[in-house]
Amino acid sequence: MMRVRFSRSQAVVLLSVLLLCSCSTLAQVPTPQPAPPQQPTTKEPKDQPSTDQPSGSPDDSPSLEHPVSVTSTSPPIRQISSAGFLTQSASPLRWGPFYVAYAQFAQIFEQGNAFNGQSDFQNAASQLSADIVFDKEFRHARIAVQYIPRVTILNGQVFGDFVNQDTGANVVFTLTPRLTLNLADHFTYYSSQDAFATIFLSSDAVSGTTLQRDFIEAPASWLSNSAIATFNYALSARTRISISPNYTYATTSGQSTATNFPTVNEYGVSASVTHDLTARSGVSASYTEQTDALPGSSYRTIYQSLQGGYFHSFKGGWSLSGSGGFITANFQTGRDWSASGSGSLVKSFRRSRAALAYYRGHTLSGYISRQFSDRADASYQLYLGRRWTMGGGVGYLRDLFTGNGIWGKYGEANLSFGLASTVSLFGTYVYKWQRGDNVEVFSGNTSYVGLGIQWKAREPFVGR
User: 247: which residues sit within 8 A by CB, 6+ positions away?
Assistant: First the structure.
């Protein structure tokens, strides 16, 4: 078992602080936040929570984002733990630009059965997590750092492997009235087998975005760091172009074999153009090139994708976005082609919310694979009266065109009771089936029950 000392998370925080200090001389005059996306919003009743996370701990590794196009030339900043954008919080735990967005304690009981019968386990864990945010605006820049530490005591012992970390840093520069630059870095570390995430599809009714979180479990730890620089240029009031060079480093504590690679370096660039047809709809086109380099191998796998997209926000709380095209890669066994794309649908009813999301392409979802993959999720939350909330979700993931046979499915249910407007008790149940190689991906089924209490700061209301 790989152990990581607390100094790793301290190093991440130190780097974030240095980044803040280096940019603090940009300007001193604050300006309003960037305008939110021009999407329809539904006024929720007073007894309805404003979040799709009434219970359970947020996931340890955000995975697949499905953003609806943003019409502001100054891009908002994405949250790292859920769908939607980072907004000013009404948290009472605020010290200038620093504030605590939520804090949570959960007691978890887990049981797993391996298909080979050799790795059965049963655990009891206590997990404490919080979301600490630094958000500061200057005259021509905005700096935001999001830090989510999670400390887990497993079977009475605190292990370095279970000090899960999720950190994101953004610096947004308004270079000209038409041109902006968003420098972003996202660091994630967690134990794949004991992340204890519960709601795997997060949705945001205001922006119409969804986020498919990682759910695949492995007998190893997962570490990734991604950096991206996004240049956004407004050609006109309706048309924008975006160019994003990016780099990702990912590694696991799994062993290297002839078919498994515990470390990968990814680098590439994406370019897109978006045109608003109306205030509620638009079209887009994008091209992405990405290269995967495996240490110890001179071979480089190059992925290329071309897609066209459409988004629309309907009256009545509907938000729809989707894109489709193709993806190709030069594998050592030959060139493969596949359809690619993504889509999301979010619907807010008077006392409930439903979301669907789909993705096909190449991505890292808590394990390293060079293959194309499919991912689909659905979730539903029902608000019962002023205090009770219940819901659930289902989803699956599978690798395509590969002999490793990696796939996974999950089903989850949650229930919460509001003690106060910002404090709630919750209970969750999750069941997973998955098949892997027992090196990078656990092969078997896992179930766990979580009981706990959560405090979450109020968010500013955004209405019509």
Answer: 226, 227, 228, 265, 266, 267
With a CB cutoff of 8 Å and minimum separation 6, the contacts of 224 are: 61, 186, 187, 188, 248, 249, 250, 251, 364
At 191, give phi and psi (nearest 5°). Answer: -85, 120
Query: CA 422 from chain center: how many Å?
Result: 23
Cα dihedral 199/356/70/62 (nearest 10)? 30
* Cα–Cα distances in angstroms (integers) from residue 135 to residues 42, 99, 204, 457, in the given order: 27, 8, 20, 15
The helix (H) or strand (E) run that includes residue 294 is none
Go through the chain and tell me how many residues it has.
464
Express each pLDDT in 185-218 by its tens digit: 999 988 765 566 678 999 988 888 899 988 888 7
Distance CA 267, CA 245 (A): 8
Phi, psi angle pair for 19, to nearest 5°: -65, -40
Is the pLDDT at 289 greater than 50? The verdict is yes
pLDDT tens-digit series, residues 116-131: 656 677 888 888 899 9
Q: CA nearest 19: which of 150, 129, 134, 104?
A: 134
User: The pTM is what?
Assistant: 0.79
List strand residue ranges (DSSP E) for 209-260, in order.
209-212, 221-234, 239-252
Q: What is the spatial distance between Cα 276 and Cα 112, in angstroms, rounded to a whole number? A: 49
Residue 299: per-residue pLDDT: 85
How close are the terminal C-alpha atoms of the chain, in Å? Answer: 52
Q: Is 206 exposed, middle or buried (0-12, 13-18, 19+ CB in 10 A)?
A: buried
